[in-house]
Amino acid sequence: MQAIRLARPRVSLRRLATTAQAPTSASSSSVTASVIPLSNVEAQWEKISKSEQAIVHRQLEELQKKDWKTLSLDEKKAAYYVAFGPHGPRAPVSPPGQGLKVFLATMGLVGVAGLLTLAIRSRAPPPPKTLTREWEEATNERALEQKLNPIHGISSEGYSGKGFVTK
Question: What are the distances in angstroms from CA 9 to CA 6, 15, 38, 49?
Answer without folding.
Answer: 8, 11, 23, 12
